[in-house]
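Marked as duplicate of an earlier ticket. Keeping the data here for the record.
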Amino acid sequence: MKFTLKRNSKSRDVRTETKDSLWQRFEQANLRLQHKCAQWLEQKTAHFSRLHWIVVLFTFIVFTGGCSIYLIVTSFSGNTTKNITVIPITKPTSSLSVKKNDIELNTIISKVELEKIIRFRRYVDSLGRSPTGKKTHDSIVQYRPGLLDSLAILENYYYSHYKN
């Protein structure tokens, strides 16, 4: 029992040592990269005088302060055109139930009537795809909200009786 505990503790020590050495290598590479970047920046700004640094600092302060003030003022102003509006989800009044037993049609649809329904649905779909017909499609959907659903129900009803 003592032998297994020592063995496990040694394996854990090896794992932590490899993690530590990997972490140390990463830190060393990071420090080297930071040192190279600092040297490059120092070379680029070696000719700056005290006045140059003051101008750069003043420009930075004015720019970041202006951006912050602009964001604060626009957030408190009543301009809602840029804001995201949240519209609550409501159940439509002309919703259809998913259950098949609720909808029972006792009439038989002929094949000619089915073809008319299919042509009309294709026509309405093509209106929705074209930019000029989009307005007509939207008005049909707005003024007859359940029309396309009713056509789909009729087609499904015909195909269900056709299979039987």
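See parent ticket for discussion. The mean pLDDT is 80.
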